[in-house]
Give the backbone structure.
Amino acid sequence: MKKVILDCDPGHDDAFAIMLAAQHLDLLGVTTVGGNGYLPKVTRNALVVLEQVGRTDIPVYPGHAGPSTHELVTAPNVHGESGLDGPVVTEPVRKPETKHAVDFIVETVMNTDDVTLIATGPLTNIAAALNREPRIAEKAAGLYIMGGGAYAGNWTPAAEFNIWVDAEAAYKVFHSGIDLHMVGVNLTRQCPVDTEFIEGLRSIGAHAATFSAELCDFFSHGGDAHLHDACAVAWVIDPTLIESAYLHVDIELTGTLTRGMTVTDLRFLQTAKRDVDIDLSSTARWDDPPVGSPFRGQAPNTHVAMRLDYGRFVDLVRTTMRNYR
Ligand code: RIB
Ligand code: CA
């Protein structure tokens, strides 16, 4: 099993990310970051989810409460006041670890080979770890994020929530040289939380499946009904679930309208007459911009997820929930 650390801000879709990772990956630890909710809430929620699936052996390390440059903006409109509204759960018995998330990330990556980082919230902890120890960029087996979008955002027309919340942290990550995989909203829009998906979970009847269906009952009424974070973990579990293109991506920090945008070099799309003709593996994906372009010489730096095999993704989620008690 691949060794991973999951940095998250549970969050309903983060909960699915945790449940998938706990079963299919060697989940060395869960680290939490302010995002969907304030740090105490998202940390409690991570403990709740692990308890619901009987994995109280997996430690939870609280991290940064929010960005260092801006006031944290949370998303109670999507995830509710608790950050995990919907299922009725008992308070977790376990307490989080006293070690800081950033210390855990740096120590684990530097002392253990082949650790893959997965981040499904704002990149505050990941950027702090890279600032603390830049060598994790090459020591880590890679970083998979749910964040950004190749074409558009969801929190603003240009920016997706995780990147927008802490754009400076994202800039640090995208410029770190780490082997970066981006699951943006252009991918996760292919992963709807619809009635068929929810009832397919509820019909399983096991505790974890019912818990996950009740998460979706709330989440799907929040209006943002896509299982964003689970897609990033699914890509690590089964790389064949997602087709990607290796592109140049940078983070807008100063745009009045575009702050937090993952500016993606999609010029290769213009080599195809129609979207259906797009060949993601085409070498035409990246031809250096013309002399005089400020982007000249900026080679690809990110594996951008473009196509999801939704049917097999749903199979993975259902199988996972059946396997839990
Ligand atoms: O924009 C979607 C992302 O923001 C997901 O990670 C969701 O959990 C929220 O954090
Ligand atoms: Ca999240």
Summary: Residues 3-247+306-323 form a domain with the Inosine-uridine Nucleoside N-ribohydrolase; Chain A fold (CATH 3.90.245.10). The first strand starts at residue 3 and ends at 8. The pocket of calcium ion (ligand 2) is lined by residues 8-9, 11, 13-14, 35-36, 120-121, 229 (CB under 6 Å).
